[in-house]
Specification:
Blueprint (H helix, E strand, L loop, with lengths): L1 E6 L4 E9 L9 H10 L3 E10 L1 H4 L7 H19 L10 E7 L3 H18 L4 E6 H7 L7 H4 L6 E6 L4 E6 L5 E6 L5 H11 L6 H9 L24 H13 L5 H26 L4 E5 L6 H13 L3 E3 L11 H13 L14
Helix pairs in contact: 3-4, 5-12, 7-8, 7-9, 7-10, 8-10, 10-11
The structure holds 5'-O-[(R)-(carboxyoxy)(hydroxy)phosphoryl]adenosine and zinc ion.
Protein backbone atom coordinates (compact mmCIF):
# COMPACT_ATOMS: atom_id res chain seq x y z
CA UNK A 1 0.00 0.00 0.00
CA UNK A 2 1.31 3.40 -0.94
CA UNK A 3 0.39 6.20 1.40
CA UNK A 4 0.66 9.87 0.51
CA UNK A 5 0.72 11.77 3.81
CA UNK A 6 0.30 15.42 4.70
CA UNK A 7 1.21 17.08 8.02
CA UNK A 8 0.50 20.74 8.83
CA UNK A 9 -0.50 20.70 12.51
CA UNK A 10 2.10 23.21 13.70
CA UNK A 11 5.05 24.92 12.02
CA UNK A 12 6.28 22.26 9.60
CA UNK A 13 4.71 21.78 6.18
CA UNK A 14 5.43 18.14 5.42
CA UNK A 15 4.50 15.62 2.74
CA UNK A 16 5.74 12.04 2.44
CA UNK A 17 5.19 9.01 0.27
CA UNK A 18 5.56 5.76 2.18
CA UNK A 19 5.15 2.20 1.07
CA UNK A 20 3.72 -0.24 3.61
CA UNK A 21 4.19 -3.94 3.09
CA UNK A 22 1.73 -5.37 0.67
CA UNK A 23 -1.03 -3.60 -1.13
CA UNK A 24 -4.41 -4.33 0.36
CA UNK A 25 -5.58 -7.24 -1.78
CA UNK A 26 -9.11 -8.05 -2.90
CA UNK A 27 -11.88 -7.48 -0.38
CA UNK A 28 -12.24 -11.12 0.66
CA UNK A 29 -8.65 -11.23 1.85
CA UNK A 30 -8.84 -7.84 3.53
CA UNK A 31 -9.22 -9.10 7.07
CA UNK A 32 -6.27 -11.42 6.81
CA UNK A 33 -4.18 -8.69 5.24
CA UNK A 34 -5.16 -6.38 8.08
CA UNK A 35 -4.17 -8.95 10.70
CA UNK A 36 -0.89 -9.56 8.97
CA UNK A 37 -0.24 -5.84 8.52
CA UNK A 38 -0.88 -5.13 12.18
CA UNK A 39 1.42 -7.95 13.24
CA UNK A 40 4.30 -7.19 10.94
CA UNK A 41 4.06 -3.68 9.57
CA UNK A 42 7.03 -2.81 7.38
CA UNK A 43 7.60 0.57 5.86
CA UNK A 44 9.77 2.09 3.21
CA UNK A 45 9.97 5.86 3.09
CA UNK A 46 10.06 6.70 -0.63
CA UNK A 47 9.85 10.49 -0.26
CA UNK A 48 9.94 12.72 2.78
CA UNK A 49 9.92 16.51 2.43
CA UNK A 50 9.64 19.11 5.17
CA UNK A 51 9.49 22.85 4.82
CA UNK A 52 10.27 24.33 8.21
CA UNK A 53 8.94 27.69 9.37
CA UNK A 54 11.31 27.90 12.32
CA UNK A 55 13.12 30.98 11.00
CA UNK A 56 9.82 32.81 10.43
CA UNK A 57 8.52 32.20 13.96
CA UNK A 58 11.85 32.74 15.70
CA UNK A 59 11.36 36.49 16.28
CA UNK A 60 8.08 35.70 18.11
CA UNK A 61 9.76 33.10 20.34
CA UNK A 62 7.07 30.57 19.41
CA UNK A 63 4.62 29.64 16.67
CA UNK A 64 2.36 32.46 15.48
CA UNK A 65 -0.79 30.67 14.18
CA UNK A 66 -1.95 33.16 11.51
CA UNK A 67 1.53 33.31 10.06
CA UNK A 68 1.84 29.52 10.17
CA UNK A 69 -1.40 29.11 8.22
CA UNK A 70 -0.24 31.55 5.55
CA UNK A 71 3.06 29.72 5.20
CA UNK A 72 1.36 26.31 4.95
CA UNK A 73 -0.89 27.61 2.15
CA UNK A 74 2.14 28.91 0.30
CA UNK A 75 4.36 25.88 0.92
CA UNK A 76 2.01 22.93 0.40
CA UNK A 77 2.06 23.10 -3.43
CA UNK A 78 5.83 23.68 -3.37
CA UNK A 79 6.48 20.70 -1.12
CA UNK A 80 4.23 18.50 -3.29
CA UNK A 81 6.21 19.64 -6.33
CA UNK A 82 9.40 18.55 -4.57
CA UNK A 83 7.85 15.12 -4.00
CA UNK A 84 6.89 14.90 -7.66
CA UNK A 85 6.65 17.23 -10.63
CA UNK A 86 3.86 14.96 -11.85
CA UNK A 87 1.75 14.10 -8.79
CA UNK A 88 -0.50 11.79 -10.84
CA UNK A 89 2.39 9.35 -11.09
CA UNK A 90 2.56 8.94 -7.31
CA UNK A 91 -0.43 6.58 -7.50
CA UNK A 92 -1.25 6.45 -3.77
CA UNK A 93 -3.70 3.85 -2.43
CA UNK A 94 -4.71 6.21 0.36
CA UNK A 95 -4.05 9.80 1.37
CA UNK A 96 -3.44 10.38 5.10
CA UNK A 97 -3.76 13.84 6.59
CA UNK A 98 -3.37 15.08 10.17
CA UNK A 99 -6.75 16.22 11.57
CA UNK A 100 -5.49 16.94 15.10
CA UNK A 101 -4.26 17.79 17.61
CA UNK A 102 -2.64 21.04 16.55
CA UNK A 103 -3.40 24.61 15.55
CA UNK A 104 -6.86 24.62 14.00
CA UNK A 105 -6.20 27.01 11.07
CA UNK A 106 -3.07 25.02 10.23
CA UNK A 107 -4.86 21.67 10.37
CA UNK A 108 -7.49 22.99 7.94
CA UNK A 109 -4.85 23.92 5.36
CA UNK A 110 -3.69 20.28 5.26
CA UNK A 111 -7.21 18.84 5.17
CA UNK A 112 -8.31 21.16 2.37
CA UNK A 113 -5.13 20.48 0.41
CA UNK A 114 -5.73 16.73 0.72
CA UNK A 115 -9.23 17.20 -0.69
CA UNK A 116 -7.96 19.44 -3.48
CA UNK A 117 -5.26 17.07 -4.69
CA UNK A 118 -7.60 14.11 -4.44
CA UNK A 119 -10.01 15.84 -6.79
CA UNK A 120 -7.29 16.98 -9.15
CA UNK A 121 -4.97 13.95 -9.31
CA UNK A 122 -6.34 11.00 -7.33
CA UNK A 123 -10.11 10.66 -7.76
CA UNK A 124 -11.49 7.64 -5.93
CA UNK A 125 -8.60 7.51 -3.44
CA UNK A 126 -9.73 7.54 0.17
CA UNK A 127 -8.55 10.24 2.55
CA UNK A 128 -7.81 9.02 6.08
CA UNK A 129 -7.81 11.54 8.92
CA UNK A 130 -4.79 10.79 11.13
CA UNK A 131 -4.03 11.62 14.75
CA UNK A 132 -0.72 13.48 15.06
CA UNK A 133 0.01 11.74 18.39
CA UNK A 134 -0.49 8.30 16.85
CA UNK A 135 1.97 9.45 14.21
CA UNK A 136 4.59 10.10 16.90
CA UNK A 137 3.68 6.92 18.77
CA UNK A 138 4.17 4.76 15.66
CA UNK A 139 7.16 6.66 14.27
CA UNK A 140 9.66 4.01 15.45
CA UNK A 141 8.11 1.63 12.93
CA UNK A 142 9.59 3.65 10.09
CA UNK A 143 13.04 2.36 10.89
CA UNK A 144 12.61 -0.71 13.08
CA UNK A 145 12.50 -4.21 11.76
CA UNK A 146 9.37 -4.83 13.74
CA UNK A 147 8.82 -8.31 12.30
CA UNK A 148 11.90 -9.68 14.02
CA UNK A 149 10.74 -8.52 17.40
CA UNK A 150 6.98 -8.78 17.12
CA UNK A 151 6.65 -11.55 19.68
CA UNK A 152 8.60 -9.78 22.37
CA UNK A 153 7.41 -6.20 22.18
CA UNK A 154 4.29 -6.17 24.35
CA UNK A 155 3.24 -5.12 26.88
CA UNK A 156 5.06 -1.90 26.20
CA UNK A 157 5.29 1.46 27.92
CA UNK A 158 5.22 4.39 25.50
CA UNK A 159 6.39 7.87 26.39
CA UNK A 160 5.33 10.62 23.97
CA UNK A 161 7.14 13.90 24.60
CA UNK A 162 6.60 16.89 22.34
CA UNK A 163 5.99 20.62 22.35
CA UNK A 164 2.30 20.10 23.10
CA UNK A 165 2.10 16.77 24.92
CA UNK A 166 3.67 14.57 27.59
CA UNK A 167 1.87 11.24 27.72
CA UNK A 168 2.63 7.85 29.22
CA UNK A 169 0.80 4.85 27.73
CA UNK A 170 0.51 1.17 28.43
CA UNK A 171 0.27 -0.74 25.15
CA UNK A 172 -0.98 -4.31 24.93
CA UNK A 173 -0.53 -4.36 21.18
CA UNK A 174 0.03 -1.77 18.48
CA UNK A 175 -3.61 -0.77 18.63
CA UNK A 176 -4.67 -1.51 22.23
CA UNK A 177 -3.55 1.12 24.66
CA UNK A 178 -4.42 2.70 27.96
CA UNK A 179 -3.34 6.14 29.01
CA UNK A 180 -1.50 5.93 32.33
CA UNK A 181 -0.84 9.60 32.75
CA UNK A 182 -0.06 12.94 31.13
CA UNK A 183 1.06 16.43 31.99
CA UNK A 184 -1.30 18.46 34.11
CA UNK A 185 0.08 21.76 32.79
CA UNK A 186 3.00 22.49 30.41
CA UNK A 187 4.33 19.85 28.04
CA UNK A 188 7.98 18.99 28.57
CA UNK A 189 9.01 20.41 25.15
CA UNK A 190 7.15 23.59 26.00
CA UNK A 191 9.15 23.90 29.23
CA UNK A 192 12.40 23.52 27.26
CA UNK A 193 11.19 26.27 24.90
CA UNK A 194 10.21 28.61 27.75
CA UNK A 195 13.40 28.11 29.77
CA UNK A 196 15.43 28.66 26.59
CA UNK A 197 13.72 32.00 26.17
CA UNK A 198 14.62 32.99 29.74
CA UNK A 199 18.31 32.49 28.98
CA UNK A 200 18.11 34.17 25.57
CA UNK A 201 18.32 31.07 23.44
CA UNK A 202 16.38 31.03 20.16
CA UNK A 203 13.22 29.04 19.37
CA UNK A 204 12.86 26.06 19.40
CA UNK A 205 14.58 25.82 22.74
CA UNK A 206 14.94 22.04 23.12
CA UNK A 207 17.96 21.52 20.87
CA UNK A 208 19.55 24.79 22.10
CA UNK A 209 19.24 23.79 25.78
CA UNK A 210 20.67 20.38 24.98
CA UNK A 211 23.66 21.94 23.20
CA UNK A 212 24.37 24.44 25.96
CA UNK A 213 23.88 21.78 28.67
CA UNK A 214 26.81 19.74 27.38
CA UNK A 215 29.14 22.44 28.73
CA UNK A 216 27.33 22.84 32.06
CA UNK A 217 27.14 21.06 35.40
CA UNK A 218 23.80 19.22 35.80
CA UNK A 219 24.24 19.17 39.58
CA UNK A 220 25.07 22.87 39.91
CA UNK A 221 21.51 23.90 40.83
CA UNK A 222 18.97 21.72 42.60
CA UNK A 223 15.79 22.46 40.66
CA UNK A 224 12.63 20.66 41.80
CA UNK A 225 11.51 17.35 40.26
CA UNK A 226 7.74 17.96 40.19
CA UNK A 227 5.54 14.98 41.07
CA UNK A 228 8.51 12.64 41.10
CA UNK A 229 7.44 10.92 44.28
CA UNK A 230 3.73 10.83 43.60
CA UNK A 231 2.47 7.36 42.90
CA UNK A 232 0.53 8.34 39.78
CA UNK A 233 1.90 8.62 36.23
CA UNK A 234 1.08 12.28 35.67
CA UNK A 235 3.60 15.03 35.07
CA UNK A 236 3.87 18.75 35.76
CA UNK A 237 6.50 21.07 34.30
CA UNK A 238 5.13 24.52 34.97
CA UNK A 239 6.55 24.69 38.54
CA UNK A 240 9.99 23.66 37.29
CA UNK A 241 9.90 26.43 34.70
CA UNK A 242 8.88 28.96 37.36
CA UNK A 243 11.66 27.91 39.69
CA UNK A 244 14.18 28.53 36.88
CA UNK A 245 12.64 31.98 36.44
CA UNK A 246 12.99 32.78 40.17
CA UNK A 247 16.50 31.37 40.29
CA UNK A 248 17.52 33.64 37.41
CA UNK A 249 15.90 36.65 39.09
CA UNK A 250 17.82 35.99 42.32
CA UNK A 251 21.09 34.86 40.70
CA UNK A 252 21.41 36.83 37.47
CA UNK A 253 25.11 36.11 37.12
CA UNK A 254 24.82 32.31 37.10
CA UNK A 255 26.52 30.46 34.28
CA UNK A 256 23.81 29.78 31.67
CA UNK A 257 25.26 26.40 30.77
CA UNK A 258 24.77 25.32 34.40
CA UNK A 259 21.15 26.51 34.26
CA UNK A 260 20.56 24.58 31.03
CA UNK A 261 22.21 21.41 32.33
CA UNK A 262 20.50 21.54 35.73
CA UNK A 263 17.08 22.25 34.23
CA UNK A 264 17.48 19.48 31.64
CA UNK A 265 18.52 17.02 34.33
CA UNK A 266 15.49 17.88 36.49
CA UNK A 267 13.04 17.52 33.57
CA UNK A 268 14.55 14.27 32.29
CA UNK A 269 14.82 12.77 35.78
CA UNK A 270 11.04 12.94 36.13
CA UNK A 271 10.38 11.52 32.66
CA UNK A 272 12.78 8.65 33.18
CA UNK A 273 11.67 7.85 36.75
CA UNK A 274 7.98 7.64 35.86
CA UNK A 275 8.60 5.65 32.69
CA UNK A 276 10.83 3.22 34.57
CA UNK A 277 8.30 2.80 37.36
CA UNK A 278 5.55 2.07 34.84
CA UNK A 279 7.80 -0.40 33.02
CA UNK A 280 8.45 -2.27 36.29
CA UNK A 281 4.82 -2.18 37.39
CA UNK A 282 3.47 -3.54 34.11
CA UNK A 283 6.37 -5.90 33.39
CA UNK A 284 6.99 -4.14 30.11
CA UNK A 285 8.89 -5.94 27.40
CA UNK A 286 9.60 -2.67 25.62
CA UNK A 287 9.85 1.04 26.12
CA UNK A 288 8.83 3.25 23.18
CA UNK A 289 9.98 6.85 23.08
CA UNK A 290 8.69 9.43 20.57
CA UNK A 291 7.91 13.11 19.88
CA UNK A 292 10.21 16.06 19.33
CA UNK A 293 11.88 15.75 22.75
CA UNK A 294 12.87 12.18 21.81
CA UNK A 295 15.63 13.88 19.81
CA UNK A 296 17.31 14.62 23.14
CA UNK A 297 20.36 12.36 23.30
CA UNK A 298 20.55 12.39 27.09
CA UNK A 299 16.95 11.17 27.31
CA UNK A 300 17.53 8.47 24.70
CA UNK A 301 20.70 7.32 26.43
CA UNK A 302 19.13 7.14 29.87
CA UNK A 303 15.98 5.32 28.73
CA UNK A 304 18.10 2.95 26.68
CA UNK A 305 20.14 2.10 29.79
CA UNK A 306 16.94 1.66 31.83
CA UNK A 307 15.54 -0.69 29.19
CA UNK A 308 18.75 -2.68 29.22
CA UNK A 309 18.51 -3.12 32.98
CA UNK A 310 14.90 -4.25 32.61
CA UNK A 311 15.84 -6.55 29.74
CA UNK A 312 13.31 -4.67 27.66
CA UNK A 313 13.58 -3.47 24.07
CA UNK A 314 14.11 0.25 23.62
CA UNK A 315 12.49 1.63 20.49
CA UNK A 316 12.74 5.22 19.34
CA UNK A 317 12.56 6.66 15.83
CA UNK A 318 15.80 7.45 14.05
CA UNK A 319 16.88 11.08 14.37
CA UNK A 320 15.11 12.16 11.16
CA UNK A 321 11.66 11.22 12.49
CA UNK A 322 11.51 12.63 16.03
CA UNK A 323 10.24 16.09 15.27
CA UNK A 324 7.18 16.65 13.09
CA UNK A 325 7.18 14.93 9.71
CA UNK A 326 4.66 13.39 7.34
CA UNK A 327 6.20 9.89 7.13
CA UNK A 328 4.90 9.19 10.64
CA UNK A 329 1.44 10.34 9.54
CA UNK A 330 1.61 7.79 6.72
CA UNK A 331 2.24 5.05 9.30
CA UNK A 332 -0.69 6.21 11.46
CA UNK A 333 -2.92 6.43 8.37
CA UNK A 334 -1.91 2.93 7.28
CA UNK A 335 -2.63 1.41 10.70
CA UNK A 336 -5.95 3.30 10.89
CA UNK A 337 -6.93 1.99 7.48
CA UNK A 338 -6.20 -1.59 8.58
CA UNK A 339 -8.29 -0.97 11.68
CA UNK A 340 -11.02 0.54 9.48
CA UNK A 341 -10.97 3.59 11.70
CA UNK A 342 -12.78 6.50 10.09
CA UNK A 343 -12.25 9.97 11.47
CA UNK A 344 -14.20 12.91 10.12
CA UNK A 345 -12.12 15.19 7.94
CA UNK A 346 -12.55 18.08 10.31
CA UNK A 347 -9.77 19.90 12.18
CA UNK A 348 -9.85 18.90 15.83
CA UNK A 349 -7.28 20.91 17.73
CA UNK A 350 -7.90 18.94 20.95
CA UNK A 351 -7.88 15.44 19.52
CA UNK A 352 -6.23 13.15 22.06
CA UNK A 353 -5.19 9.53 22.29
O1 LIG B 1 6.99 16.78 18.02
P1 LIG B 1 7.40 18.17 17.78
O2 LIG B 1 8.23 18.47 16.57
O3 LIG B 1 6.15 19.11 17.68
C1 LIG B 1 5.03 18.91 18.47
O4 LIG B 1 4.21 18.01 18.16
O5 LIG B 1 4.95 19.64 19.49
O6 LIG B 1 8.14 18.67 19.11
C2 LIG B 1 8.72 19.92 19.20
C3 LIG B 1 9.28 20.08 20.59
C4 LIG B 1 9.74 21.49 20.88
O7 LIG B 1 9.25 21.90 22.14
C5 LIG B 1 11.26 21.37 20.90
O8 LIG B 1 11.90 22.31 21.73
C6 LIG B 1 11.43 19.95 21.40
O9 LIG B 1 10.41 19.23 20.76
N1 LIG B 1 12.75 19.41 21.07
C7 LIG B 1 13.67 19.03 21.99
C8 LIG B 1 14.83 18.62 21.27
N2 LIG B 1 14.55 18.73 19.93
C9 LIG B 1 13.27 19.21 19.84
N3 LIG B 1 13.65 19.04 23.34
C10 LIG B 1 14.76 18.63 23.99
N4 LIG B 1 15.89 18.23 23.37
C11 LIG B 1 15.97 18.21 22.02
N5 LIG B 1 17.09 17.81 21.41
ZN1 LIG C 1 4.57 16.63 16.91
Amino acid sequence: MRILAIETSCDETAIALVEATGRLPALSANRQAARQGLKNPQFKVLKNEISSQIEIHRPYGGVFPALAKREHLKNLPLVLKKISGQPKNLKPDIIAVTVGPGLEPCLWTGINFAKEIKEKYFPGVKIIGANHLEGHLYSFLLTTNYKLQAKNLFPAIALIVSGGHTILLLMKSLTERKKLGETLDDAVGESFDKVARMIDLPYPGGPEIEKLATGGNPDAIKFPRPMLNQKNYNFSFSGLKTSVLYYLRDNPKTNKADIAASFQKAALDVLVAKTTRAAYAFKAKSIFLSGGVAANKELRKTLQATSYKLRANFLAPSMAFNTDNAAMIAVAGYINSLEKKNRRLIANSNLNL
